[in-house]
Amino acid sequence: MIKVAENLVSAYFPPDIISKISRCKSVAVSFSGGVDSSVVLISMISILGASKVRAYTFRSSLHLKQELERGMELCSDLGVRQIVIPGPEQEDIRVMENHLDRCAVCKRLRLEHLIGVCGDDSVLVDGTNYDDLKDPTRLGNRVISELGIFSPLAEAKMTKAMVREMAKKQGLPWWNESATACLATRFPRGERLDSFEMDRVAWAEIALKDNGFDVRLRALKGGVICMEFPPQKEEILTLPSGALLEILKPFGFHRIMVDLEGYKVGRIWP
């Protein structure tokens, strides 16, 4: 059960940030359904009440449908209004052809769209945390700063670990799930993104995780797929190849490989 409790918020957010939020007429949360934005949404409701909070979620082929669905369920449980919007990035060639600046372009398109629809009375907030600010691979950070978006987790200097700790105490069911990242990261830079291929990779990753494999897939043309396991996985050479093939073959992959270097955040593929 989700806990909407002001005393829990005060344990993680300093008084000046709580005061800043309390003075808002209303807030609009850029809400993906991930751990960070879920913690922000629950915290905003704890401070302001559900009637002064709105959740804005983008529906896009670049993200897992499961995150959208669970986010909609969370908003319903919390009694907060959710507005689902088609992702504007799906119409931009720089994003859909997976350019090097895709992430920054996508972030700007989305935030500028939200600024336009939220109205002057609402403060737009997002789920950027303190660790995100120090991550050079997150090209959208500069956009967030330029547009003046309020990131309460980052301002409170809440790290990823602290956010997950708070999410657990709030009763968020997916508090300890690995970040899924944009599906465009599964494909080579400069390759035209295809919704069918992104869905195929997404469902394959879900099937692997449902069977106990923590893995990130990287796709190449011709039905070639490469698995990246956490780098600390020492027994990578003794993985049960038969079980992995049995899971992945039904998705139509013709060649299935393992990257011996393992998963690395921000790594450009290939």
UniProtKB/TrEMBL annotation:
GO biological process entries? purine nucleotide metabolic process
Q: Where is the active site?
A: C182 (nucleophile and sulfur donor)
Q: Which residues form the NAD/GMP synthase domain?
A: 23-128
Q: Which terms does the record give in the GO molecular function aspect?
A: sulfurtransferase activity
Q: Name one Pfam family in it.
A: NAD_synthase
* PANTHER family, sorted: EXSB FAMILY PROTEIN, NAD_GMP SYNTHASE DOMAIN-CONTAINING PROTEIN
Q: Which named protein is this?
A: NAD/GMP synthase domain-containing protein
Q: Which organism is it from?
A: Dethiosulfovibrio salsuginis
What lineage, starting at the top, does this entry show?
Bacteria, Thermotogati, Synergistota, Synergistia, Synergistales
